[in-house]
């Protein structure tokens, strides 16, 4: 083909049409399934492209698996007592036994389920409350914002743990009480954060455009603004879970939880009650302590990773995995 | 637009064409939320007094520099801002400006806005399909996914985004500025409006694709008899695009009429200034210099100048210009201006002691008109209550 002919062809193109060299048969895909697959691939890419996120999420995944399947693998009933008290780790009892002869390894497996389940559930609920309060307050402004901001500010300055201790002592003991008290004392920080973000987001033109096309307020808040804040919400959720795990353990350690359930916090409580540190029973308090530290560190790693991904200077790391069709377009 | 077309438009009396959307004496103050211990609360007087009418199949341009209140007018008409005072009429019926919810949605089914910046007006996390499906769903034009897909594909073809099947699953970041603005136009069209308010639809786009977008809007206007409001700071494109042109300065409408009239025979000194700032090959070939010195800038809208807001920059400013805003003077052919050089609504030009001497070359025609009524020296006494701009 001569060069002149080529140029003529290019010149007569409609400016917004894609050149005919573009593959005519675009791979047909059922868009919903394809979208789900694309999203999963994206999540996988984010999880694996950053080393901190990769390490953090594998540890978290390990704990989640233990929480789900651990109790099936437990060699003993975690609450069953025996005459073998305070034995150090052995082949029969991998992590030794307590003062009343309970198997610590079995307790740890059961305790992981309880602690991880309640930690993540409470973290999720705390985040949910902050998201609703923060976005509603930031989007509507005016008197709604004034009231919600006032409440948020009051809860911000209340010292959370002392209030939680008092409140937990006042209500009937149990995990539900602890969960509600932790939600009550911890939602305000992230609500404040998200309100500020929403304030800047609501004056963005795509929000105005959504209003102009007749969208309702709740639809704009949760379908236009919220997805743009998902990164912040994810980071807030991760750090909230760390805090909730620690607060939960602290309350149980102080004997404010249900001490008869098996969890990391109640294991530490009983270890403390039996003076395990002074008796040198390290196998009693060390395993739950290590689990908390490890899970906390893993979540912190994920958060650092999110920061790195959000930093534009580090974005080149992900941009290597541009969707295929874009690359093709760039070439043609 | 051909000459014959222009003539027919002018010859058909306005009575035949009923305006779709009318605005009368729109005014918008944005209160400032600064705490002041002394003095009254302050406000930005964005729009002082704007009136306009939009007709089916015709385009009206509003021109003016940044801060002249053009966008505020469009947003009031789109009911994104509530006017401080004034009336909006849709098909002759006054629109309830307090309405919310369903009534507001009904209004928006007929009046749609296209935004200036296509890079900001599309949500980066949503696909083209989502952007176009929402107005279809909200306004009940599509009830299931198949109807939705068919209508979205039709919309994409209408705005010349082909092959539509490929664009439907794309995300804003995969599109160029021109393509994004086409999506924004398609989103406005999805509602099936009668009135399209285009707020500087091409100013953020590359020069090479501006004409494409303007021609697309022109085609839609002609094919679907849309009433178009075209907001721009480029007076040359107003002439190309719109049958009627209105000139705004600092929230006041200073001149208006058929685009050919306004751009070829500008009367108001501000319009003359605007036109002299636009590059004109003929004038440049003739080696003429700028006729008016472009001096000053748009005043503070918190403390706007009294009277005619253009007087601090106007080469012909008179004492009376400081005192009040002139009434509308009809200049024939549907051309009108608010300027004391041509009268004060009664056709009698106002002549008084000049504040500044007019530049000798500047608008010789207007100086002549201004000098016509010499002798009578009809200095109108300042009537502080009557004029809309004397509130300060």
From TrEMBL, chain A:
<dbReference type="InterPro" id="IPR050366">
    <property type="entry name" value="BP-dependent_transpt_permease"/>
</dbReference>
<dbReference type="InterPro" id="IPR035906">
    <property type="entry name" value="MetI-like_sf"/>
</dbReference>
<keyword id="KW-1003">Cell membrane</keyword>
<keyword id="KW-0813">Transport</keyword>
<dbReference type="InterPro" id="IPR025966">
    <property type="entry name" value="OppC_N"/>
</dbReference>
<feature type="transmembrane region" description="Helical">
    <location>
        <begin position="147"/>
        <end position="170"/>
    </location>
</feature>
<keyword id="KW-0472">Membrane</keyword>
<dbReference type="InterPro" id="IPR000515">
    <property type="entry name" value="MetI-like"/>
</dbReference>
<feature type="transmembrane region" description="Helical">
    <location>
        <begin position="281"/>
        <end position="306"/>
    </location>
</feature>
<dbReference type="Pfam" id="PF00528">
    <property type="entry name" value="BPD_transp_1"/>
</dbReference>
<keyword id="KW-1133">Transmembrane helix</keyword>
<comment type="similarity">
    <text>Belongs to the binding-protein-dependent transport system permease family.</text>
</comment>
<dbReference type="GO" id="GO:0005886">
    <property type="term" value="C:plasma membrane"/>
</dbReference>
<feature type="transmembrane region" description="Helical">
    <location>
        <begin position="176"/>
        <end position="194"/>
    </location>
</feature>
<feature type="transmembrane region" description="Helical">
    <location>
        <begin position="53"/>
        <end position="74"/>
    </location>
</feature>
<dbReference type="GO" id="GO:0071916">
    <property type="term" value="F:dipeptide transmembrane transporter activity"/>
</dbReference>
<protein>
    <submittedName>
        <fullName>Peptide ABC transporter permease</fullName>
    </submittedName>
</protein>
<feature type="transmembrane region" description="Helical">
    <location>
        <begin position="230"/>
        <end position="251"/>
    </location>
</feature>
<feature type="domain" description="ABC transmembrane type-1">
    <location>
        <begin position="116"/>
        <end position="303"/>
    </location>
</feature>
<feature type="transmembrane region" description="Helical">
    <location>
        <begin position="116"/>
        <end position="140"/>
    </location>
</feature>
<dbReference type="Pfam" id="PF12911">
    <property type="entry name" value="OppC_N"/>
</dbReference>
<keyword id="KW-0812">Transmembrane</keyword>
UniProtKB/TrEMBL annotation, chain B:
<dbReference type="Pfam" id="PF08352">
    <property type="entry name" value="oligo_HPY"/>
</dbReference>
<dbReference type="GO" id="GO:0055085">
    <property type="term" value="P:transmembrane transport"/>
</dbReference>
<protein>
    <submittedName>
        <fullName>Dipeptide/oligopeptide/nickel ABC transporter ATP-binding protein</fullName>
    </submittedName>
</protein>
<dbReference type="InterPro" id="IPR050319">
    <property type="entry name" value="ABC_transp_ATP-bind"/>
</dbReference>
<keyword id="KW-0813">Transport</keyword>
<dbReference type="GO" id="GO:0015833">
    <property type="term" value="P:peptide transport"/>
</dbReference>
<keyword id="KW-0067">ATP-binding</keyword>
<comment type="similarity">
    <text>Belongs to the ABC transporter superfamily.</text>
</comment>
<dbReference type="InterPro" id="IPR017871">
    <property type="entry name" value="ABC_transporter-like_CS"/>
</dbReference>
<keyword id="KW-0547">Nucleotide-binding</keyword>
<dbReference type="InterPro" id="IPR003439">
    <property type="entry name" value="ABC_transporter-like_ATP-bd"/>
</dbReference>
<feature type="domain" description="ABC transporter">
    <location>
        <begin position="32"/>
        <end position="275"/>
    </location>
</feature>
<dbReference type="InterPro" id="IPR003593">
    <property type="entry name" value="AAA+_ATPase"/>
</dbReference>
<dbReference type="InterPro" id="IPR013563">
    <property type="entry name" value="Oligopep_ABC_C"/>
</dbReference>
<dbReference type="GO" id="GO:0005524">
    <property type="term" value="F:ATP binding"/>
</dbReference>
<dbReference type="Pfam" id="PF00005">
    <property type="entry name" value="ABC_tran"/>
</dbReference>
<dbReference type="GO" id="GO:0016887">
    <property type="term" value="F:ATP hydrolysis activity"/>
</dbReference>
<feature type="region of interest" description="Disordered">
    <location>
        <begin position="356"/>
        <end position="392"/>
    </location>
</feature>
<feature type="compositionally biased region" description="Low complexity">
    <location>
        <begin position="357"/>
        <end position="392"/>
    </location>
</feature>
<dbReference type="InterPro" id="IPR027417">
    <property type="entry name" value="P-loop_NTPase"/>
</dbReference>
